[in-house]
Amino acid sequence: MNLRFLQVTTLFFALAPLSKTFAQSLSALKTEYLVNPIGLDNPSPRFTWQMNDTSQGAKQTAYRILLDTDSASLVKANAKLWNTGWVKSDNNLVIYSGHPLKPFTKYFWRVDIADGGQKKSNKTYIASFETGIMKMQNWQGAWISDTENTQLKPAPYFRKTFTANKKIRSANAYIAAAGLYELSINGKKIGNHRMDPMYTRFDRRTLYVTYDVTNAISQGKNAIGVLLGNGWYNHQSTAVWYFDRAPWRNRPAFCLDLRITYEDGTTETIKSGKEWKTALSPIIFNSIYTAEHYDARLEKAGWNMPNFDDTDWKNVIYRSAPSKNIVAQAMHPIRNVEEIASKSLRKFNDTTYVFDLGRNISGVSKITVSGPAGTVIKLKHGERLYANGHVDISNIDAHYRPTDDTDPFQTDILILNGKREQSFMPHFNYKGFQYVEVSSSAPIELKKENLLGYFMHSDVPVMGDVKSSEPIINKIYYATNNSYLSNLFGYPTDCPQREKNGWTGDAQIAIETGLYGFDGITIYEKWLADHRDEQQPNGVLPSIIPTDGWGYEWGNGPDWTSTIAIIPWNVYLFYGDKKLLADCYENIRRYVNHINETYPTGLTTWGLGDWIPVKSKSPVELTSTCYYYADVVILAKAAKILGKNDDYEKYTALAKKIKDAFNAKYLNKEKGIYHTGTQTEMSVPLYWKIVPEESIALVAENLAKRVEADNFHLDVGLLGTKAILNALSENGYNDIAYKVAAQKTYPSWGWWMENGATTLYENWPIDAKSDISMNHIMFGEIGAWLYKSPGGIKPDETQPGFKHVILDPHIMEGLNSFEASHIGPYGKIVSAWKRINNGIRYDITIPANSTATINLPLTRGMDNYINGKLNNTGKIDLVAGKYVIEHKAGK
Hints:
By secondary structure, this protein is of the alpha+beta class.
């Protein structure tokens, strides 16, 4: 990838102004939720934009989209391929419906809008996208590898030279791989992605990536280099999930088309095939699960340069494609997002050092070191230290099952060549760690500056922020985001060290936290495609996705694999885009039907239950039935949205059946208590709204009493943490929810922070004997709760995508100020409040082309003023704009 891809290249062309008073402009022009993407396969891409207008009541009343291959024609509003004409609509999400798109083509699109006064934009806003391969038959390259020996450990190099005899206009490289790769041209790595392509069920769907390599190719002789890694495709490490026995497993392979367009309009494709040469690289072992080993003595200087002598390199072999479904990777890539300097260094002796990054991350370390040839340096990565200061990985290697001592867990191995100071950073691995213990077979001299950490994750744009007057809340929010990002690698994972698995339960808990904070739609659309790949014909899904086959028999059930319904529904709420809901509709229906057929009473015992509770255990049937109910409610709503009226009626009736059966068994209606009245047993039914309307107030009151009896501390597990704070806040017990959220003693999120946590943990006691990863996202709902309760920002399912914003900020005892912001599809929403001498001041921003409703307190002796005007109606409708609202003592 070159700079052209990374930059926002929206073009501005001056036109004669249509209105001197027209103040609005446009921004965030995206195709398939990406800025000027290349290599798209979707024949009907989605276009989105935002209207920038700070005036009160700003809105879009019409739009026009034009599309062509010639940007100059768009300036003249003369589009040959698509012109919607002026459409009276406030939509800012439009699906392409023009002439069929061709592969390998760059398209430009222009959007114009009219505002509430019917004034049309007086500037031209143009964005672009490029189509990719689009159809399997358009590939020209062959799938090649060096061998089919899955046990061979060194990573292979591949190279080919070619001559470009004419002046080059543009060039794109399209590369698909079974495994991982790094692509280079003329000695330079292409792009700044890590770990491409993203992990999928390789034998059902394989991803390819497109790069603009125009500036990398020279007229004359050129060389292409490809380095292949194992990734999840050829898993040589052994662990409890049996990825070493995956049905797709083979030696890594790739297919590449380098398509060059010359200035004279002709094209040429340099492709993978028999004329390529291969040799083993200095990466003598690579495992995405454990680490990477590198022998610098085996380096082949200039291996990817045009004049390198490859006469002793071997011929490649042909391989069949891993799947018949090679599709574009249209998503935010994994990158080294943040460089982190070592905070401290402890030297034990001249062969042993421990570096501390000061925070827990997912990613890699980079060491710069010199020493005698043959010196073996081991870099052991871990989350904590023994009392003697050495790195302790006993909390994160629990599921590793090594067959010998040649593949130590999270331990990179570097063998020096003795020639000069050299740097090493793994190519095809990442870890979860804060500390790095460096040990060497010969004395070396290291300083703090010799080791850097790189925080790696899917590089999703930040879309939200939270600021609080209470430091512990800020620390919890920071740690939650760190854990969320540490577990985003093209799919959501549970932890970046011990497993790296796509646990469905963790992901459904954290979906709102992720969507409030980050622009994750491209990741979730990819991951739900993984769901569709993995679903069995009877509707069953595995507990980890993707999978090699593990997880269909354990860990799945509606409390975990409700991801198939909950995630598409939340993407719909946050983006106002029903594509994912439509794509997954039949899968949700098949899943619900399977549960209905297996558990015809409406109650289901299928699931893991309230995983890792503090002390109280709740019946699996209680929690799983609530999730089953949630799935059916979502299915019924989706049916209505998608116009499937018969299904809407069918599943609405099924939801009622489940609700009635559940309450008949578990609700003591007279007392207002579910089962034995634990925090989970009370909060989960409230959160998923399975409680009868007439019982909600009493059940909520009893939940509040139970929390008070527990001294305002948590007594929940995974499922309870999703529900507890929301169930309290949504039913009038905001102060109690805040007391729980802001606790600093065990068990609580704050207890972790007080003990130095920079991420969220897997277990409430910090000295637990099992399940003690220190970077898990499964207890991460608190991040979303901060937006929903003290921030009060919620989507409205009747006008999703924050077209209409529900504002219900809760003023909480113990907080002096709070601010939440979220950039939705229409722009930035701000909900801030602070205590003033005689009341509360709110600062609200509603973006252009959207509206909001705010619930304000009505208190005896207090008045509400909106931008200085008295308004005591309580529930107030707001148009776009900025507002200062004061709730203060009346005059």
